[in-house]
Design goal:
Two copies of one chain form a homodimer.
Chain A lengths: L3 E2 L1 H11 L5 H7 L23 E5 L3 H12 L3 E5 L11 E2 L4 E2 L6 E2 L10 E2 L5 E2 L3 H9 L4 E4 L7 E3 L9 E2 H22 L8 H15 L15 E3 L6 E3 L13 H7 L9 E4 L5 H10 L3 E2 L2 E9 L2 E8 L2 E7 L1 E4 L10 E2 L3 H7 L3 E2 L2 E8 L3 H4 L5 E5 L5 E4 L9 E9 L10 H12 L6 H4 E8 L11 E2 L5 H11 L6 E3 L11 H25 L1
Parallel strand pairs in A: 2-3, 2-19, 3-15, 10-23, 16-20, 19-28
Antiparallel strand pairs in A: 4-7, 5-6, 8-14, 9-14, 10-11, 12-13, 16-17, 17-18, 21-27, 22-25, 22-26, 23-24
Chain lengths: 523, 523
Amino acid sequence: MSKPVTRREFLNLIAATSGTAAVLGITSALGMIPSSTQASVPDLLKLSSQRKKAVILGAGIAGLTVAYELDKAGYDCTVLEASHRAGGRVFTVRAGTLIDEIGNPQYCEWDDEPHLYFNAGAARIPSTHSNVLHYCKELGVDLEMFINENKAAWIQDDNIMGGKPIRNREVSTNVRGFMAELMAKAMKDGDLDQPFSDDEAGIILGLIRTFGDLDANMKYTGSTRAGYASGDYVTHTTQHEMIKIRDLLQTNALRGVISDNEGETGPMLMQAVGGNDRIPYGFVRQIEDKIKFRALVTSVELNDKGVTVEYDYDGQRHSIDADYCFNSIPSHFMNGIKHNLPAQYAQDMKYIRRGTAMKGAFQAKERFWEKEGIYGGISWTNQGIRQIWYPAHGIHKQKGVILAAYDYGNGMPFTRMTQEQRIEMMISQGEKVHPDYRQYVEKGITIAWHRMNHMLGCSARWRVSTPEEERIFANLQAPVEGKYWCIGDQISHHTAWMESAIQSAHFALAELDRRVRAEVASA
Amino acid sequence: MSKPVTRREFLNLIAATSGTAAVLGITSALGMIPSSTQASVPDLLKLSSQRKKAVILGAGIAGLTVAYELDKAGYDCTVLEASHRAGGRVFTVRAGTLIDEIGNPQYCEWDDEPHLYFNAGAARIPSTHSNVLHYCKELGVDLEMFINENKAAWIQDDNIMGGKPIRNREVSTNVRGFMAELMAKAMKDGDLDQPFSDDEAGIILGLIRTFGDLDANMKYTGSTRAGYASGDYVTHTTQHEMIKIRDLLQTNALRGVISDNEGETGPMLMQAVGGNDRIPYGFVRQIEDKIKFRALVTSVELNDKGVTVEYDYDGQRHSIDADYCFNSIPSHFMNGIKHNLPAQYAQDMKYIRRGTAMKGAFQAKERFWEKEGIYGGISWTNQGIRQIWYPAHGIHKQKGVILAAYDYGNGMPFTRMTQEQRIEMMISQGEKVHPDYRQYVEKGITIAWHRMNHMLGCSARWRVSTPEEERIFANLQAPVEGKYWCIGDQISHHTAWMESAIQSAHFALAELDRRVRAEVASA
């Protein structure tokens, strides 16, 4: 009895908790795991004599995937990219990088060293994202392990423990202890749906005891898993006092602590060595001469010959004719681009909303977190910055770059601030987690994705699904006149992942291929 | 109300589960976390004119730590090491390595590439092991992330699911679902010790729901966290059928699945880039001229001048006089070495038993596990090989080295086998986890620590503690006549970790330093 799972269930749960900092915990927890460990790359019919032309709008991961695969299959491809760089929301900031946030352009002034970078967009590669991994392998992009959950990192919340940061392991150990006690109680008192044999019950009680580190009476009285209060490996030790569940309940971080190792953010995760923009630039290396940067699309016209795209380059109007068009331009920009797509299609495009998201980062003069025993992973706080991420690379080097703020979908208090105010807010809130923060961090950068040039939004937000939303999704996913496709993570059930962008490209390519094969067969 | 925690509690629990494959799960779960993130390196008084001589027996981590620190403080050090290499049970096997197991010597014949190595001894560095990390930094040993828990890896047990391997994430998701249902039941029916307010109960129910991915009726009906049965990110999906807890209970792997991310093996962990023997050899680089390899100690005599150690080198008897002696020779060898240690001390040394442990590894022609979506981490089986570890490094390269067996303390069925039989057993048991295993793996090596030359045992085993055991530990930890110390993880509350060996060295050094300072003050 498999039950169907749609993005609706996912979004229902989000809706149920929206407006709280728990949203990320929930989305992580619900991270969807694809059924196949095989990449979905379609086996495109290789074109020989009869060349076909494709124009691809946008050099993000989806557009690059289409161009790379079509180029290999013998298509004549042109990629038009509005900005000065490839990758879209796969964006790595390092010394000299321009962050082209509208109204807040910045150049990054960090030291020019390979480990001093910041993935301002896509940061984590789950091992279940077989298409991303497929291309990393094929394009020679080196990968290394990424750490998401770190039990040594901090939980800081003004609503618990007097605002004092405590280790993730203290929170998780004590919550598990409480949970295990509850389970033991149910085994004793509960009216179980199906009774267990003595043997089974014994195994379950053993599991529960192991889960929570309960004592022989199935009581939780604290655990060394939370760390020692004193002592070490050669002298006797005392454990930390246990923390009562009541004293922990008022932090939203709890949900993250108990679910962040599940689903898509669960172990294990990877990152590209040197920065995740190595992935889009892996594609770019293969098709560099097919990409026109700073080419701003002004018109998309479907016509008898195929598709004609007009674009501005250096103040001049240019035009390109192609048989096919693959469009990853954020759908909300298509309002302002002249086009002759069907009225219903145009209407449907307006349905897709874009999320907001702000990330900030500092270069740290010293890797102060390592002195606190933190190597990679995330600290959580109820402050506006929400998270501090420590790098999983460059261990024990002098300097490091940390993510100092990651706010998403919550009114975006940072948006109206000046850059100086954003940085001051990142520092002063970070000081609640690391009291000596200010002396270490320097050269802050921030990036508000909903104000980034050629973006004006983070990932697409499909809302609580309805039959009408199903119709819209299907309409936008289908080709128009067999020659125009919407691509990008915006047309996936699981936005904001590179994997989704690639799968959207493969979906469109497979559709195209069926048409081309049918044409060839009937010719 | 802190409760004291000793190794006794730890060992009681082990005793309670001994003879089952759950032992590792338990020891992991109970992994002790030190209270301090600061290394314990003692600040030794620097000797100037008045040189003192120290002889250190054994060039494992403990002996190297003592020699390195004393050398820095101006002591005249000699390290006598019986074998041809440093590191003891910190041993990395790569092309050309001699595995000097008695009765089964092997040279490793893997390809000579930096990523093709195997940590046959110490493999994992927890971020809480501040002394190991301190020396890695000081000695310039590069570190990278290590993956222990991988939800994509396999659980295979002949007693569940008809012996078919299932993903760790399927097991953990379904167990969590069951556990969450139990908790919800206790919240509804249980006679809770302390009632919660409606607000608190609501938060707890939300947590429980998140923990187990329960439906709105607080029932577990399966979860996408266990993966899709079909579909992907652009087409509709169905989830896997849920697995009933009853169908999972008969595997010992369950305990590992629910506790392996706690305590010492919890996130995050590290390894030395290129092999963990980079750590002992980091010390060796600093004190290379102080170490005599192939120097077999034959006599230790405490006398009026200090300590005289006799040793064999190249068939010749040699002798060295020193003021102090630090001895990391496995205590069970001291029976066969002439010495004049006090009778009670000699008797106490015999109390320490050594564990057994066997590891095996293959070079794989292809990284077949990556095709299955596995990058690092551990698969568990109820076969004798128990575990398969996949490398966290060398991602997407052609070949890789995997741990193919890790058996410890369970009668050691491998010991009586020939090397060919061991390898065949590793292959045939591995085929239950990876059906096409045999075609990929080659050039197997095995290492039985209880038969390794100059070892004849894995880590020391302190048994269930008694007042008598406390006395023995204290007696062996204290110096003899103020000039002889037992060192090594054998004299720690938490054997089998590099951190313990280092802390034992620091403990002895701090003791020595107090004596030297007192001498200087009274001179």
